[in-house]
Amino acid sequence: MKKDNSLNQSDKAVNFWLCAGLLAILLTSILARDITRPFYGLHSWAEAHGQWLASVHIKYGLGYTKGLCTWAVGNPPTENPSRYLDHPQLYTLLNAAAMYGLGIHNWSLRATNIIATVITLLLFLKILRRLLDDKTALLASLFFVLFPVIGYFGVNMWLYPFALWAIWNYLVIIKGLRAGPEPGKLHKIFLALSLFMMLQLSWEGFFVALAIGVHYVCRCIYRRTFPEKSLLAILIIAPLGSLVLDFIIMAAGYGWDYQKIIDLYKWRAGSGEMAEHNWGKWFARLWQHASTNFTLPVLFISIAYLTFGQLFVFTAPNEKGSFACPQRRFPQFWLFFMIPTFQLFILKGALWPHQTWIRPFSFLFAIAAAQAVMLLGDLLKKINKRAANAAMVAMVVVITISCIIGVNHYYYIRWQSPAKIKMLKMLNQKIPPDKYLLSFETFIVNQHKSKGAFYRPEIAWYLDREIVQARTFEEIQKYAQTDKYPYYLVPAVDSLPISTLIGQLRKRYKFQYVPGEAGERAKDGKFLRAGMMPYMIFDLSSRVFGF
User: Within a 10 A sphere around the Cβ of 21, how many other Cβ atoms?
Assistant: First the structure.
């Protein structure tokens, strides 16, 4: 009997990982959709930013960048470039290594992100298989794959693989898994390494480390036991040491101006991009992002499971007097709940511009939605098995359809006009690498004093040239005489003083007219696709007849 049971367990494991492989293929196909698309879609700013910073390491070398995120364009670049220091630096170096192998393409880091997201999925499955039954684990992972926030953005490189690896090793050490491996020294080494690496990759790693540490302390208090000294030391020293290293690198880059670090924290912990913090508007924004990241059906059934569903899980006795649905409890709920909650509320100002700031809720909602489906099935099976199966299938179908619609919506949104991308590419071909573009607009972004000013990333990626602003005819004439500015770019709009300036330029220089492109809004007035105003490109090396 033991042998037969062993074979049965082996067959189940093979079947489980075969299904996991199919989920990995499905995830890859979703993320690989239109992988060579330009940087004009949803959050094109963030996507182009990572690609731009990684490419700078490759084009100009680590001797130029000093291993730090660097804003630079043109060839040769400026001698004293600005640095982007408000994030840990390791992630850009890893991105540069990936791009070095794949080449400087807009799809290079997208392909790398697919690998990181698939690894995250497999680690999630590895954890869930020791927390849930196989069917529920696979269903939760299916929902994770289908979520629009994952299907469009992925997990943004290497933070999440390290985060889930840290969670796995932590749960092994505290024996928080069902039939998990025996804890050993190697698990503590891997936990320490993961905790350290997370904070070198992203500030989000801090919240994972904080959640694990708080979870362990609360667990010890609840069980009235003293913490294990070695584990407690790892949970404190590894992330704290990594955090200190991050701050040292930032402070050195800022010329040991610690006030900039404080200002950066206050900005993201406070109102962020808004003039002032308003909790009503903030929660409305949170719901807006959650409803598109995870879809409304997932939110509704997850909330129902986490509230009313718990009445069935914890209170209704079965025939033997025990809990009706003990297998439908949310395993390690507080750990999965604290990670996104700490992130959301400690740096609440980051919610406004970033849908992805609530991405850690993906694990929570995936498990909750899967448990909700299975709980409904368990309850209905007591009445009619066929009705139970039909209800479960219907719920999965509704969630699947809503997620497909959601991810299609994300792929449809455009933050930049394709016509603008085309114009930037044309200018990049026209202007020699060692010369500049003279422009009415600066294309400079100034989010906050702690971040510094830099070119909008999509502009810098497609127009790899320095941009100098000039807004008067006299300025343009002065710059044109230096022979460093072959073209002048100005919006072709009928408003003063631009129309007057264009009239003066048309009398002196040849020009090319670039037609604009209409944008698009949804029926409710929300932004969908960016348009572009028309532009005129004046050739400053030419002269109109008679001049």
Answer: 11
